[in-house]
Each structure stands twice: as structure tokens, then as C-alpha cells.
Amino acid sequence: MKSFLCVTIIGISLIGCISVPKEVHAQSPSYEDTRRFIIDKFAEYNGKHMISNTKVGFYFDKYIKIDEDCDFEIINIWRDPKSKRVVDTITHIGRFSRFDPSTVNVQIYDTGGPRLSISTMNGEKAIKYTHNGKVEYQAGIYPIAVKPPYRDNAPRLEKAMKHIISLCGGKEQLF
After folding, report:
1. In whole angstroms, what is the distance from residue 171 CA to residue 175 CA?
2. Mean pLDDT to the nearest integer, 60-87
3. Is residue 13 classed exposed, middle or buried when 0-12, 13-18 and 19+ CB atoms within 10 A define those classes?
4. Are 45 and 25 in contact (CB under 8 A)?
5. What is the mean pLDDT of the chain?
6. What's the pLDDT at 76?
7. Residue extents of the structural domains in the chain
8. I need a surface site. Which of 11, 70, 104, 146 has the fewest CB within 10 A?
9. Residue 161, phi then psi, degrees to nearest 5
10. 3-state DSSP of the chain
């Protein structure tokens, strides 16, 4: 649906109208709204899914913290289903401004549900990855399970991640 934008130039008796797509009038979601959407999508998953690992099944929780300065931390926690004891933790820490929004990809796998991957601009190793006490720096977050409860949430999460990266100053490579 199109609407019309009419402009009158003072001092000239010319009135002009142009057709403008409706999207121009709509405001994009704010940083806070986008931040809350992403946090909520990660939270919907927690405590509801069990991952089988050979003989033992683990509950898998994933959290994301996003602060007001575009810094984030993604925390993956595996728990023993009986004792609720933490058996493994992986974290990714970074800043959205260092990502290329065009690299955000949420793919849906038949066996494991949606997986999120994102790369930094120009391959910069700007993501602090911690697993079993070992710290390394990476140029991307490669397929991490997000598993929103409904498959149709995956494209919405991808769009939200691209949006927050752009809001924080992340830029696409020129070519």
C-alpha cells in the first residue's frame, strides 16, 4: 500500500505530490525493543530441551546478556538432568559493532533445529570464546544452537540480530 507525500514550497505556487511506500513512514524497532526481543527468544528455549549425548542426556540452557553499550555475552550451559549440576559451559563475549550484519545466518537443521552463525568485519578475531577454562579469540560465532520453540521464529531472530548489529554500528563489507 502506498501513501502520498505532498510538499508545498513557500514563495512558489507549485505543489508536488510523490508516491511513497508505507515502509518509509514506519519506524524501525528501537535498540531496547530489539535487545528485549533477542533476550526473550533465547529465554524461551531454556529448560525445555534435552540433548542426548551417547548414554547420558543433558539439559541445555542458553542465555544472552546484552548491555546498553552493544556488548553481549552468550552463555551455553549443559546440566545433568537428575542432579541439575552444571557439566559444561561455553561463552562467547563480544561487541555487536564488530560484526558484519550481512553474515548473520540462522539455518534450520532437521536434526538440531535452528543454528545461528555470525562473522566479524574483515575476519577480526574480536570474540572471546571460553570453554573448559581455555580462552581463545575467534572471528565468528559458528553454528550455535538457538532452537526457538517454533521454526518460524528463526527468520525473525535472524532479522533482529542483523538489526541490532546495524544499530550498534556494524557494517557490511563493501563488496
Report:
1. 12
2. 86
3. exposed
4. no
5. 76
6. 84
7. 29-167
8. 11
9. -65, -40
10. CEEEEEEECCCCCCEEEEEEEHHHCCCCCCHHHHHHHHHHHHHHHCCCCEEEECCEEEEEEEEEEECCCCEEEEEEEEECCCCCCEEEEEEEEEEHHHECHHHCEEEEECCCEEEEEEEEHHHCCCEEEEECCEEEEECEEEEEECCCCCCCHHHHHHHHHHHHHHHCCCCCCCC
Residue-wise pLDDT tens digits, 9-37 = 444 444 544 433 333 335 899 999 999 99
Model pLDDT for residues 128-171, shown as the tens digit of each residue: 999 988 999 999 887 666 555 556 677 888 899 999 999 999 99
Give me the amino acid identity at 28.
S
| Gap between the terminal Cα atoms of the chain | 33
